[in-house]
Amino acid sequence: MQINLKKVLAISEHSGLFLFISESKNGxxxxxLIDKKRTCMSSRTRxxxxxxxxxxxxTGELQLKEVLERMKNLPEEREIPGYKSEAVLLRSFFExxxxxxxxxxxxxxxxxxxxxxxRILRGNDTLEFEAEGEKAEGGKEEGGEDREAGLTRNxxxxxxxxxxx
Length: 165
Description:
The protein is of the alpha+beta class and 165 residues long. The chain folds into two domains: 2-51 and 134-153; 52-123, Arc Repressor Mutant, subunit A (Orthogonal Bundle), CATH 1.10.10. The protein has helices at residues 64-72, 87-97, 108-123, and strands spanning 2-3, 8-11, 18-24, 27-32, 38-42, 47-49, 53-57, 60-63, 128-129, 151-153. Strand 4 (27-32) and strand 5 (38-42) form a beta hairpin. The protein is globular. It starts with a strand and ends in a 12-residue tail after the last strand. The relative contact order is 0.22.
C-alpha cells in the first residue's frame, strides 16, 4: 500500500507512528499505526511529519524517505537491527545504509528511532511511498519549524543548528 510520508507523524511523548486523519477543533485526529486506535492530539502537541525529517551527512542532509528506501532495498538476508540493539550494531548497520552519515550529529538515539519507524511501517505494509508531487488525502501538509535533534525538519527549506541531544 502506498502512503504519503507527509501524513505519517512522530508525536512527542508518544511511542510509535501516527497517521494524520483530519483536523479537529483543538488539534488533529490521528490513528496509531501500531494498534489502529484513533485519538485527538492537542494543537500544542509537537507533531513531526516524517516527510520533513532528514539525517545529517558529511555532505549535507539525506531525506528520511531515501533512508527508508535504502533500508527496504537491502538484501533479504541482511537483518535490520532491533530498537534495543547495541550501539555498535546500530552504527555498523547505518554505515552500510548511509556510508557518509555524520557521527557528530546523527546519534544512536536517532538510529533507534529510524529502526523503530521502519519496523512499524514494514509491519503495516506501508513501505511504498507516494511520489513527491502527489497530493495526500485531505490535501493538508504537515510541517513546521521545530525538529528532532539530529533529524532536521525542512518544511520551509531552512536548516537549523543541531541541539546537543
